[in-house]
Specification:
The protein has about 300 residues and is mainly alpha-helical. It folds into three domains: about 1-55, no CATH class; about 60-170, no CATH class; about 175-310, no CATH class. About 60% of the residues lie in helices and about 10% in strands. It has twelve helices and five strands. The strands form two sheets. The chain has a three-stranded antiparallel β-sheet with strand order 3-4-5, covered by helices on one side. α5 (about 135-150) packs antiparallel against α6 (about 155-170). It starts with a strand and ends in a 5-residue tail after the last helix. The protein binds zinc ion.
């Protein structure tokens, strides 16, 4: 007696030399058999074979277009530059014999998909890009998924399964992020010539500032307000060094205390987009990043006003 490779329930042994998915009362087509052989390395029970028979179906333009839009909007939300979304989506569509054209804006994606063989099979749909936190792990895994689709001719069912697994994987703990960002910002302070007093101040300032940012974001407060308040609190804490004359470089501590807020990813993406010819989205990303930088300077200016400019 062997166990089913999918649900682990006992299943009768298959006759020698018979391919998986054959010989049972459930008849699978070629695609479904290929799927079973690629994914499971043992016999499957009747119930599982029936489920697979229902789920693994030839792809329709509607399902493919819905999947590609989920895929593209998730990638854009995770903070990727535009040409990578276009390339990955084209690669997946190509593995099913379709080609795509996309219009990508800051908040929306329009996808036009068309079958290579028969251009009457086509569909155009529009989807909003959800606001999401940057996540390089998702970007890298989703890009790998597009190559797997290309190399192994994955079925849409498999793509969906793997896509859901990637998207629902738990994120790194917020406390880890908090600690690492604090240390990284202290290291920034060192790069700009701060001494150990300054580094300590920046570490504490970043910790509190970033904690406030996390808490305010969790409460869905406007992100511009979040940036102003975090920059103000972090620079206020770092200004203790100037106020109490701790160490030789308290000004460096004050200046570098807000660097953890700088929107590096949108800035880099906007440059890449501009250079690669996606000018409109490049400009919108630059404007977004600029707005955040203005908010950071508003927070920092409030501290300087309270402290008095003689401090620098
Ligand atoms: Zn089973």
């Amino acid at each position: 007696m062997e166990n089913c490779a999918r649900c682990r329930r006992p299943v009768a042994a298959q006759p020698e030399g018979q391919a998986r998915g054959e010989g049972a009362s459930v008849l699978l087509n070629r695609e479904q058999r290929a799927y079973v052989q690629r994914v499971y390395d043992g016999p499957l029970c009747e119930a599982c074979l029936q489920e697979i028979q229902k789920a693994v179906q030839p792809v329709t333009v509607r399902d493919l277009s819905n999947f590609l839009l989920d895929y593209a909007t998730t990638l854009m939300g995770a903070g990727v530059h535009t040409s990578r979304v276009v390339r990955n989506v084209n690669r997946i569509a190509g593995s099913f014999g379709y080609e795509t054209e996309m219009t990508i804006f800051q908040r929306h994606i329009t996808l036009h998909i068309l079958q290579n063989q028969d251009d009457s099979v086509r569909r155009t749909s529009l989807r909003a890009i959800p606001a999401a936190a940057f996540n390089f792990e998702i970007i890298s895994n989703l890009s790998t998924l597009s190559w797997q689709a290309h190399d192994n001719r994955l079925t849409l069912y498999e793509l969906r399964e793997q896509f859901n697994a990637i998207v629902t994987r738990p994120r790194i703990s917020r406390w880890w992020v908090l600690g690492l960002v604090s240390l990284a910002n202290a290291a920034f302070c060192r790069l700009f010539g701060g001494d150990f007093w300054a580094m300590g101040l920046v570490c504490v300032a970043t910790f509190v500032g970033f904690l406030i940012r996390q808490e305010m974001s969790l409460r869905r407060i406007n992100h511009l307000a979040v940036f102003i308040v975090s920059a103000f609190v972090a620079s206020m804490i770092a200004s203790l060094g100037v106020w109490a004359s701790l160490g030789d470089t308290p000004q460096t501590a004050l200046g570098t205390s807000v660097l953890f807020l700088i929107p590096g990813v949108p800035l880099i993406n906007s440059i890449i987009d501009l250079l690669e010819g996606y000018v409109l989205i490049g400009i919108s990303r630059a404007v977004n990043a600029l707005t955040l930088i203005i908010c950071i300077s508003l927070g920092l200016s409030a501290t300087l006003l309270i402290l008095g400019t003689y401090a620098l």
